[in-house]
Amino acid sequence: QVQLVGSGGGLVQAGGSLRLSCAASGVIGRINAMGWYRQAPGKERELVATCTSDGSTNYGDSVKGRFTISRVNAKNTVYLQMNSLKPEDTAVYFCYGNRWGEESWGQGTQVTVSS
Length: 115
Known about the structure:
Strand content: over 45%
Helix content: under 10%
Number of strands: 11
Largest sheet: 7 strands, mixed
Structural class: mainly beta
Number of helices: 0
């Protein structure tokens, strides 16, 4: 059973920065894809960023140029550096992993950006 534990959320002023971390446990070998999705109240869950084990990245349009995803394969750990935060970034951020078709989700960490 793969478990994803995310952390790093909190309250920050608009224009500030946060760094999210997510580490996987209960898995042998590399996770093919890891990343972050977010969900705000009343809205659908949306892609933030993903990264494959070979380094390919993908970003949601609303965060391009502001957020950066990175990972350490040996530790099955993924990071999300969030800069120039806006109030519309306020959401619960979920770490995501996919290993040979098996999907895993973290517990979610709250990010709140004040005006």
